[in-house]
Amino acid sequence: MPDRTEAENAPSPGAADQVGPVPAVRVRGLWKRFGPQTAVSGIDLDLPAGRFIGLVGPNGAGKTTTLSMVTGLLRPDMGKVEIGGHDVWTDPVAVKSRIGVLPEGLRLFERLSGQELLAYNGRLRGISGAETDKRASQLLDVLDLGDARHKLVVDYSTGMRKKIGLAAALLHNPEVLFLDEPFEGVDPVSAQVIRGVLERYTRSGATVVFSSHVMELVESLCDWVAVMAGGRIKAQGRLAEVRGEAPSLQQAFLDLVGARAVDGADGLDWLGGGR
Predict the structure, then answer these.
(1) Same domain, 69 and 128
(2) Do 119 and 232 belong together in one domain?
(3) Which of 62, 112, 123, 225 is deepest in the core (most CB within 10 A)?
(4) The model's pTM
C-alpha cells in the first residue's frame, strides 16, 4: 500500500467536478442505529484540509461512532463519506493509504516491542525495511520512547501506549490523522510531547481531526471545530465563528448542547451539610 507521497500522485475520481478546494473530509447524510437507539442522525460535515480540527461533544454524543464510520471501521446504515475526494466504502485502498487512525480503546500487539510494532506496521504499509527503520527510529526519539524501543508494549504505561499508537498512525505519513480522545488518561509530560508532534504535523499542511470533551484543550489547539450532541451536528466552522460572542468555547458549547445548571432545587439540598 503506498504512503502519502505516492498517494498524492494518484488521480482522484470526481476531483475535477469539485468547486473550490476538496475538503479533507466530506460527510453527507450519515446515519447509524444500534437497535432502537440512534447514535448518529443524518449528519453533514465538511472538514477543511490543512487544519487542526476538533470534534467536540458530551459523552454519548456520537463522536466515536462518527469517527469509526468516517475511517471505515464501522459501516453506516446510510450516507456517504469522502476523504480527499475518495469514497471510504467504494475506494477503500486509496482512502486507507491517506489516513492514520488512533482509535479509542487502542489494541496493540502487546508481545512485540515498540520498535517491532512499528517495523510490522511499516511492512503492512508497503514501506521498505530501511525506510521503516529510519522513520521508526525518528518517531521513537521524538516521542520520548527511544529508551523503551526494545521494551514489550504490554509493559508500556497509558501515556507510552498512546505515543506508540500515534507513532504507528504517523509512520506512513498520512494526509489526514484521526484521533479519538488522544489525551485521555495521559500525563502532562506525555500530553505536551503529543501536542508538539501534532502541531508540527499540521504545520506541514496535513490535517488532524480529533475528538474530545475537554473544551479548554480544543480551544488551545484547534482552529476549526464541529460541535456534536445527541447524534447531530449543532455547529461547525472556524473556532471564532462557533464561539461567537461567548467568552469561551466552553460557554458556547454549553449553550449549544443545552446544558442546565444544578442547584438545590434538584433534590440535593442534603448533600455536603448537616452531618
Answers:
(1) no
(2) no
(3) 225
(4) 0.83
